[in-house]
Amino acid sequence: MPRRARRAQLLESALEVFVSQGYHSAAMDDIAERAGVSKPVLYQHFPGKLDLYLALLDTSCDAIIDNCRQALESTHDNKLRVEAAMRVFYDYVASDSGAFRLVFESDLTSEPAVREHVDRVTNECASMIAHVIHDDTGLPDEASRLLAVSLVGMAQVSARFWLADGARELDRESAAGLVAGLAWRGIRGYPKHDDPHD
Question: pTM for the whole thing?
Fold first, then answer.
């Protein structure tokens, strides 16, 4: 098997093991067995369990950040931007892979490298949203960033709650739309920068 394909296969197997067992309970033996390879083959690609975990985190974090960027760039209508950004988090937690557990429910957040990866999702998504808020409202950078972090937090926490508790009552689109409506009613209260009545 070509090296790139083997690496992808190992990452897929590792994701299944980490999601089902958590970092501390997962063993490299389990991952090798799930992938159908020997441990030496696994170690040829990843020197240790933490390296493997961080590679998975990289992929997961990049996916959320890229999807958030696409959501913000998909329209100039800010109401639709809020809805699209909210859907990013709901779609992510609803994914069959369960990868969100690595990012939002990791049992290894005390490890600085893991914490850095996890924080990157909030920081980079919030930074993109803060630029939109600042450009539209003229609010100072600090205020724009605080509002943006609040929106990201609302999206992430509500999506995880929906999956754990509310998925039986509300479908994903309805849940994301409900929370996007709440977010939009709050954020639209800030006057647009070009409003002559500022």
Answer: 0.84
* Contact of 72 with 85, CB cutoff 8 Å: yes
SS3 state of residue 174 = helix
Do 179 and 102 have their domain in common? yes
Closest residue by Cα to residue 57 from 137, 130, 115: 115
Does residue 24 have a pLDDT over 50? Answer: yes
Q: Do 35 and 92 belong to one domain? A: no
The pLDDT tens digits for 101-113 are 888 887 777 889 8
How many Å separate Cα 74 from the centre of its chain? 18
From 26, 47, 68, give the residue that closes a domain. Answer: 47
Same domain, 124 and 164: yes
Q: Which residue has the tokens 């998504």?
A: 125
Six-digit token string for 54: 């961080």
- Which range of residues forms the domain containing residue 29? 1-47
Both 111 and 33 in one domain: the answer is no
Which residue blocks in the chain are alpha helix, DSSP H?
A: 3-25, 28-35, 39-45, 49-73, 78-94, 100-104, 112-137, 141-161, 172-187
Backbone torsion region of residue 190, taken as left when φ is above 0, otherwise alpha when ψ lies between -120 and 50, otherwise beta = beta
